[in-house]
Design a protein that fits this description.
This protein has a 5-stranded mixed β-sheet with strand order 5-2-3-6-9. The chain has a 3-stranded antiparallel β-sheet with strand order 1-8-7. The chain has a two-stranded antiparallel ribbon with strand order 4-10. The radius of gyration is 15 Å and the shape is globular. With about 170 residues, the chain is α+β, with helices and mostly antiparallel strands. A hairpin with a 2-residue loop joins strand 7 (about 135-140) and strand 8 (about 145-150). About 25% of the residues lie in helices and about 30% in strands.
Length: about 170
């Protein structure tokens, strides 16, 4: 009898890892010591894991025409707010109030995951994710990342893929 592929055990038990485990998708957890003095959460994660910043994606919460929207873009670049608005059929986008983003997602800034959010928000994933076999996103707290296929990330978040990142 053939063995089933072993799913990665969850580490930390965040809502993101719980959601991944429940969905049955393969993922890898990466943990590192977070340095509060580091100027960029995403770049710190890439450095700590030894992964290209093009494969590590940050989760940002924006307000598009009054509706909170999640943007998932490479840490190596920035979010194109006009592109985000266009991707969801909106006119204007601005970064959401950090306290509102934290309350709505259930995560703290620098640890917001696109997975397992308290309130499911519409999500847009930068189309550059498709260039990689796997990408890393926050697992729900600073110092914890999950690595998974971009297809699984898009499916689990019902994400629209669009060019929303810029260098």
């Amino acid at each position: 009898m053939a063995k089933k592929p072993k799913k990665q055990q969850q580490s930390g038990g965040t809502p993101a890892t719980v959601a991944l485990t429940a969905a049955g998708v393969p993922f890898t957890v990466h943990s590192y010591d977070h340095d509060p003095a580091h100027p960029s959460y995403g770049e710190e994660a890439a450095e700590a894991m030894g992964v290209s910043p093009d494969r590590v994606f940050k989760t940002l919460v924006a307000d598009v025409d009054g509706a909170l929207t999640v943007a998932v873009v490479p840490v190596a670049g920035q979010l194109d707010l006009k592109g985000l608005a266009a991707a969801v059929g909106g006119k204007r986008a601005a970064m959401a109030d950090p306290a509102l983003a934290e309350r709505t997602t259930g995560y703290v800034r620098g640890g917001i995951s696109p997975l397992g959010q308290r309130k499911r928000l519409r999500t847009v994933l930068d189309d550059s994710a498709g260039l990689h076999e796997t990408v890393c996103v926050s697992a729900g707290r600073r110092g914890l990342e999950v690595e998974l296929s971009p297809a699984d990330l898009a499916e689990l978040t019902s994400a629209v893929l669009a060019p929303i990142g810029r260098a």
